[in-house]
Amino acid sequence: MPDTLPASLRLHIDRAALQHNWLHLDRMSGSANAAAAVKADAYGVGVEHAVPALRDAGASEFFVAHWSEVSRVAVHVPPRSIAVLHGPNTREEADFARSLGVVPVINSLHQAQIWSASGGGRCHLMVDSGINRLGLSLGDVGAAIIGELEVDCLMSHLASADEDSAMNELQLDRFASVFGVIGHKRRSFANSAGIALGPAYHFDQTRPGLALYGGVPRAELANDIRQVAYPQAAVIQLRDIEAGDGVGYNATFVADRDMRVAVISIGYADGFLRPRGPGSSVQWKGESLPILGKVSMDMIVVDASASMGLREGDWLDIPFSLPETAAKSGISQYELLTTIGNRFDRSTI
Ligand SMILES: *Cc1c(COP(=O)(O)O)cnc(C)c1O
């Protein structure tokens, strides 16, 4: 007996689309190089699939958030090309970075002290220009310990790049105000949306994540960014119900006629969160099968009355255009991707 069986969920990853998206964002970045944000298992797409494709397209720098994410990425690319956004908060993390050659992103005086005390060396430095999340406060940039750092990329991160907000220019000005204070080799500012804000935001390196995987955070990207992830789920049961029968928890759908319904092997534990149910459909050979009732943890139920050829075991396409699904469900494109989960058999097409 095999110890695992194929899943009743599949995620097809369109390698050519992923590579196209990176190349497009790199081209849009002008003379800056586009790195790739591959944190959170490459936004749910899967590091094993995304990182080799991005590397082969030409990406040469990769960002993860956690130290625990390094090893899976380092299978595919050299450690010196991997940077860790959360930075070192313990001596152990600093030693780990140095022993592998992974690049820490320093975000605070505390992290600068830890990195220097452990022996220092090449690092990136994140300054906070207004998102008030992770990053060195502008008031701390003149500290002696910062002057000791060997900064490769001086970085900052935009809070509202997906909007036409006055915040963008304000952050740009604040970022520029530290250039003369902190020694550095390169500058990096823009995420996916920031790339579309234009050349003033590009500097030496851009850091797209979302748009690599098919997300469209700004209209300027809509025509050129391609869908990357295509989920499919299997029919696990077909049943006939009668007028008056309820479907799913709390019977929020009640049939007004006799119907044939199909139970599909995808639920909120697979990132198909409840707001994605009402008013939506799944697809079978171009036919739309409307979702009925509440989304369960492991299942949804759809109306298959019009699809008489459908059989148990058939595969249905789960619509996953990120801008469309986000607009319809109110779930962000980032959340749609990063909640995909681990029950899918991922494969590259
Ligand atoms: C996640 C992240 C990115 C990528 O942002 P997207 O909006 O997904 O393109 C870039 N920089 C930092 C610091 C991040 O945390």
Task: Summarize the structure in short.
With 349 residues, the chain is of the alpha/beta class. It has helices at residues 15-28, 39-43, 47-57, 70-74, 91-100, 109-117, 144-147, 166-176, 192-195, 322-329, 333-338; strands at residues 9-13, 33-34, 36-37, 62-64, 82-84, 103-106, 122-126, 150-155, 186-188, 205-206, 229-241, 246-247, 253-254, 259-264, 281-284, 287-292, 300-303, 315-317, 345-348. It is built from eleven helices and 19 strands.
Structure summary, number of beta strands: 19
- What structural category arises from helix and sheet content? alpha/beta
> What Rg is obtained from the alpha carbons, in whole angstroms?
23 Å
Assess the beta-strand content as a share of residues: 15-25%
Identify the CATH architecture of the largest domain: Alpha-Beta Barrel
Distance between the termini: 28 Å
> Major sheet: size, sense and barrel closure?
8 strands, mixed
General form: elongated
CATH superfamily of the largest domain: Alanine racemase
* Arithmetic mean pLDDT: 98
Description of the structure:
- There is one protein chain.
- This protein is of the alpha/beta class and 349 residues long.
- It has two domains: 15-215, Alanine racemase (TIM Barrel, Alpha-Beta Barrel); 229-319, Lyase, Ornithine Decarboxylase, Chain A, domain 1 (Beta Barrel).
- Helix content is 25%, strand content 23%.
- The protein has eleven helices and 19 strands.
- It has helices spanning 15-28, 39-43, 47-57, 70-74, 91-100, 109-117, 144-147, 166-176, 192-195, 322-329, 333-338, and strands at 9-13, 33-34, 36-37, 62-64, 82-84, 103-106, 122-126, 150-155, 186-188, 205-206, 229-241, 246-247, 253-254, 259-264, 281-284, 287-292, 300-303, 315-317, 345-348.
- The strands form four sheets. Strands 1, 11, 14, 15, 16, 17, 18 and 19 form an eight-stranded mixed sheet that branches. The chain has a seven-stranded parallel sheet with strand order 3-4-5-6-7-8-9. It has a two-stranded parallel sheet with strand order 2-10.
- A hairpin with a 2-residue loop joins strand 15 (281-284) and strand 16.
- Helix 1 crosses helix 3 (47-57).
- It is elongated.
- The model has no long low-confidence stretch (mean pLDDT 98).
- Bound molecules: pyridoxal-5'-phosphate.
- Pyridoxal-5'-phosphate (PLP) binds at residues 37, 39, 85, 157, 191-193, 207-210.
- Pyridoxal-5'-phosphate is lined by residues 37, 39, 85, 157, 191-193, 207-210.
